[in-house]
Write a structure and sequence with these properties.
Order of helices and strands: HHHHHHHHHHH
InterPro entries: Homeodomain-like_sf, HTH-type_TetR-like_transc_reg, HTH_TetR, KstR2_TetR_C, Tet_transcr_reg_TetR-rel_C_sf
Organism: Streptomyces siderophoricus
Helix content: over 70%
Strand content: under 5%
Domain HTH tetR-type: 20-80
Protein name: TetR family transcriptional regulator
Number of helices: 11
Shape: elongated
Number of strands: 0
Pfam families: TetR_C_24, TetR_N
């Protein structure tokens, strides 16, 4: 599968829960526009044009540009929460759970780097109400990862004197993948995930 076809397949899977088709096309177009131009520089006309629709048609599905950003942010952050939840709830020791959490979280930020850039770096454009909701999802993700690291520190598998600070460092490392990753670069998403998992385990001094 070529790079363009692979990206199209990933986008289709990513927004599969958005219906009807027109609403899904608008979400996909908004992600591309926000990532390329930034939220504030993007107009609803830009988004509608990318989706092959008129600006009036956009308002049938989304009342405002901010509502589109909120929809995108919600889907992305819920996916991030599911990734960390799966690792945190696995029947394995702290080392394997942390390895799995970082590997899948970093890989997702590489595979979906365009979406990830939008959901991670355009948060401040959300309305106060929507920001509060998304921030809640982020805190839940933080707590789950923090518990994995705390478990490792308590058991002696990790050397992590500052668990909250270590958690922040790990999350920041994974999130930053979205900023620099390129599908045309030298590493695949799987390779990035494996590399970051190894780096984080070294960071915490996994035994």
């Amino acid at each position: 599968m070529g790079a363009a076809a692979q990206r199209a397949a990933e986008e289709s899977e990513e927004w599969a829960g958005v219906t009807p088709d027109a609403a899904r096309r608008l979400v996909s177009a908004a992600v591309e526009a926000f990532a390329e131009r930034g939220y504030h520089a993007t107009t609803t006309r830009d988004i509608a044009g990318r989706a092959g629709m008129s600006p009036a048609a956009l308002y049938i599905h989304y009342k405002t540009k901010e509502e589109l950003l909120y929809r995108i942010s919600g889907i992305g952050h819920e996916k991030a929460l599911r990734i960390i939840s799966a690792a945190a709830e696995a029947e394995a020791g702290p080392t394997e759970r942390l390895r799995d959490a970082v590997r899948t979280f970093a890989r997702w930020h590489a595979e979906h780097h365009t979406t990830a850039r939008v959901i991670q770096y355009e948060l401040q454009a959300l309305s106060p109400e929507h920001y509060t909701e998304i921030a809640g999802l982020r805190r839940r993700t933080d707590r789950l990862l923090r518990q994995i690291i705390q478990d490792g520190a308590d058991s002696g598998e990790f050397r992590a004197d500052d668990v909250p600070g270590t958690t922040l460092a790990v999350l920041s490392l994974c999130v930053d993948v979205a900023r620099w990753f390129s599908a045309d670069g030298p590493r695949t998403p799987d390779e990035v995930g494996a590399l970051y998992a190894d780096l984080v385990l070294r960071m915490v001094g996994a035994q």
